[in-house]
């Protein structure tokens, strides 16, 4: 039990810090006034989202060798949609579902815009040890799609540099293979859903398990170009996608 206690305390601290912004934002000035000034954290958005650091790294940069993705620099619309999806249960991950349960839409948008503006240096990508043919197959699907089965190339939506597209399509660089594979799997089996029309559910459900593994491996093998940012404009998408609804 003693070994578990520090972990529990850290979890409780994250929960408390994460819920303080909502309390402050939802008008509790009398509580703030009663607390000694030395005990009150600065009332800034950066301080309010400090609870995110434990998983997503300082400034949303990401954390080496773990599952959690980088938040910094992703389109604000995408980040907002994910925060709402976690809050409303369309994405399933208990800590996120719990922390966001009572936060209102305007506050979630502020959080999304905060991380979208950040641009910390990317983390070094770990080497991907996968069969050469698997990487070749992944590159082909990402850049060309599978025309015979009407599966569009990842690059046709996520951008030629895979840096994402405003307002709601994320970049695909700097993600671990197991993370990409898990998200595609979640879409395939309905554990993750997006605004209708849910284009990613259609695409992910059309891929075979080996194709998911190939796409995940090749994306994870790419270096992160710090100069790549989400495209502001782009051509028509190959299919309807609710995440791009303004």
TrEMBL record:
<protein>
    <submittedName>
        <fullName>Cytochrome c553</fullName>
    </submittedName>
</protein>
<dbReference type="GO" id="GO:0005506">
    <property type="term" value="F:iron ion binding"/>
</dbReference>
<dbReference type="InterPro" id="IPR050597">
    <property type="entry name" value="Cytochrome_c_Oxidase_Subunit"/>
</dbReference>
<feature type="binding site" description="axial binding residue">
    <location>
        <position position="56"/>
    </location>
    <ligand>
        <name>heme c 1</name>
    </ligand>
</feature>
<feature type="binding site" description="axial binding residue">
    <location>
        <position position="96"/>
    </location>
    <ligand>
        <name>heme c 1</name>
    </ligand>
</feature>
<feature type="signal peptide">
    <location>
        <begin position="1"/>
        <end position="24"/>
    </location>
</feature>
<feature type="binding site" description="axial binding residue">
    <location>
        <position position="158"/>
    </location>
    <ligand>
        <name>heme c 2</name>
    </ligand>
</feature>
<keyword id="KW-0479">Metal-binding</keyword>
<dbReference type="GO" id="GO:0042597">
    <property type="term" value="C:periplasmic space"/>
</dbReference>
<keyword id="KW-0732">Signal</keyword>
<feature type="binding site" description="covalent">
    <location>
        <position position="154"/>
    </location>
    <ligand>
        <name>heme c 2</name>
    </ligand>
</feature>
<dbReference type="GO" id="GO:0009055">
    <property type="term" value="F:electron transfer activity"/>
</dbReference>
<keyword id="KW-0349">Heme</keyword>
<keyword id="KW-0408">Iron</keyword>
<feature type="binding site" description="covalent">
    <location>
        <position position="157"/>
    </location>
    <ligand>
        <name>heme c 2</name>
    </ligand>
</feature>
<feature type="binding site" description="covalent">
    <location>
        <position position="55"/>
    </location>
    <ligand>
        <name>heme c 1</name>
    </ligand>
</feature>
<feature type="binding site" description="covalent">
    <location>
        <position position="52"/>
    </location>
    <ligand>
        <name>heme c 1</name>
    </ligand>
</feature>
<dbReference type="InterPro" id="IPR036909">
    <property type="entry name" value="Cyt_c-like_dom_sf"/>
</dbReference>
<dbReference type="GO" id="GO:0020037">
    <property type="term" value="F:heme binding"/>
</dbReference>
<dbReference type="Pfam" id="PF00034">
    <property type="entry name" value="Cytochrom_C"/>
</dbReference>
<feature type="domain" description="Cytochrome c">
    <location>
        <begin position="133"/>
        <end position="223"/>
    </location>
</feature>
<dbReference type="InterPro" id="IPR009056">
    <property type="entry name" value="Cyt_c-like_dom"/>
</dbReference>
<dbReference type="InterPro" id="IPR024167">
    <property type="entry name" value="Cytochrome_c4-like"/>
</dbReference>
<feature type="binding site" description="axial binding residue">
    <location>
        <position position="200"/>
    </location>
    <ligand>
        <name>heme c 2</name>
    </ligand>
</feature>
């Amino acid at each position: 039990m003693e070994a578990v206690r520090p972990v529990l305390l850290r979890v409780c601290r994250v929960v408390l810090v994460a819920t303080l912004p909502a309390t402050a934002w939802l008008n509790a000035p009398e509580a703030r006034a009663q607390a000694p000034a030395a005990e009150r954290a600065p009332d800034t958005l950066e301080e309010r989202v400090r609870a995110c650091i434990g998983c997503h790294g300082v400034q949303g940069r990401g954390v080496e060798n773990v599952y959690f993705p980088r938040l910094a620099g992703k389109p604000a619309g995408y980040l907002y949609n994910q925060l709402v999806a976690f809050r409303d249960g369309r994405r399933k991950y208990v800590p996120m579902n719990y922390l966001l349960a009572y936060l209102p839409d305007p506050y979630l948008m502020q959080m999304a815009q905060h991380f979208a503006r950040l641009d910390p240096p990317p983390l070094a990508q770990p080497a991907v040890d996968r069969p050469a043919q698997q990487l070749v197959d992944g590159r082909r699907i990402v850049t060309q799609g599978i025309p015979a089965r009407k599966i569009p190339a990842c690059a046709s939506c996520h951008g030629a540099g895979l840096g994402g597209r405003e307002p709601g399509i994320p970049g695909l660089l700097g993600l671990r293979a197991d993370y990409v594979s898990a998200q595609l799997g979640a879409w395939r089996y309905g554990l993750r859903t997006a605004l209708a029309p849910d284009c990613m559910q259609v695409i992910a459900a059309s891929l075979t398990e080996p194709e998911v593994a190939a796409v995940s491996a090749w994306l994870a093998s790419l270096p992160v170009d710090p100069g790549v940012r989400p495209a502001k404009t782009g051509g028509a998408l190959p299919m309807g996608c609710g995440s791009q609804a303004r």
